[in-house]
């Protein structure tokens, strides 16, 4: 009798365990498409009978099964690697997006770019050599010169517009970093309290993992796990989240709160209860990409345009001053250029075709000075080097991005195999749990019949 009632307990434990298994498998299926969801598995533990009393004999074989744990299928090492590679990919993709947009604005090679305008300007001087007295040819020189200056000013305007957009973008990214850091600190607290109360915190852990991944994509942040399970987040060597507390990620210099430049290099700072520290290096991720583009890439290209415009103005003005205009007066400046403003200030200084100094002798129309002007380089080689250098930088980033994307996809695939929900596998788990539940129920039915026979029919034969 004792053994029979013990079997009922075993069957009951099986029903309860398989019910949990069904619930977990069903929850996995329901969240198969939920971003950041980590599949759960049930670990069963065999229940052993209590130690028998002295001199007693135990002839049982265990008292059933119980749920040992419901575990999230995570690999901390794989998670750390995924965060690191996603941070690197975010840096490269952001850089590629910005540079590709700038390259599109440069418009080279093309019929409306700066290079084409330089060729037109050079050719207009050659045409004037053939007809030095022609007002149309002289006006063409002025018009092509203004087209060249306008093309250069347009490129500078595009660069300045991109810089303004990226400064605003950087402010938004900094705000997003602080929101995510605060949420991680809050989840650290909530997870700790929840698990201390004996409640499963798997969903909260899923949310925290997503936020940690987002911080890695934003700043290249790294995560360390405390013995009590809380996350500590470090950005560029400085602590941003420490347990239940989060610091404030701040743009220390380079960009004003309104999105303007303050003329100084871009730096970052973390303000927290444990101190205020300026980051010694630029963060990674999207924040680092935008900061690097604003600090080095775009300023370097604009400086190249400024140097090109300055050299063009100086070269043309020097040769133009060596000739004589239609009235026989010495030529003046053909371009105006302000070195404090740069290429954005380049303009044609004359509007009267008669002031074009095409001649090399006073009172003559030999066109020799126009020929000398047509022989000048007009910045063609320097501009080509500048554009080719920028294009090489864009191509290099594209290659790096493609390689990093392949590596990241490989890690994502490994993570998906580890933590993702496989519907076929979960279907098998559901069927297995269902059949085990049915078997446990059948065991109860059998035991009920056995006990009915023992209790109600034993000893009634012959009555």
Q: What does this protein structure show overall?
A:
This protein has 463 residues and is an alpha+beta fold. It folds into two domains: 2-73 and 420-456, no CATH class; 76-213 and 284-419. Helices cover 59% and strands 11% of the residues. The protein contains nine helices and eleven strands. The strands form four sheets. It has a four-stranded antiparallel sheet with strand order 3-4-5-6. Helix 1 runs antiparallel to helix 9 (423-456), helix 2 runs antiparallel to helix 8 and helix 3 (114-130) runs antiparallel to helix 7 (368-374). The chain is elongated and about 145 Å long. 34% of the residues are buried. The mean pLDDT is 91. Pfam families: Flg_bb_rod, Flg_bbr_C, FlgK_D1. Residues 99-335 form the Flagellar hook-associated protein FlgK helical domain. One of its GO terms (molecular function) is structural molecule activity.
Helix content: 55-70%
Radius of gyration: 38 Å
- Strand residues, percent: 5-15%
Major β-sheet strand ordering:
3-4-5-6
Strand runs, count: 11
Low-confidence stretches: none
User: Could you report the average pLDDT, rounded to the nearest whole number?
Assistant: 91
When the domains are counted, the total is: 2
Number of helical segments with 4 or more residues: 9
Give the class from helix and strand content and strand pairing. Answer: alpha+beta
Main sheet summary? 4 strands, antiparallel
Helix and strand string, N-terminal first? HEEHHHHEEEEEEEHEEHHH
Termini separation comes to 24 Å
Shape: elongated
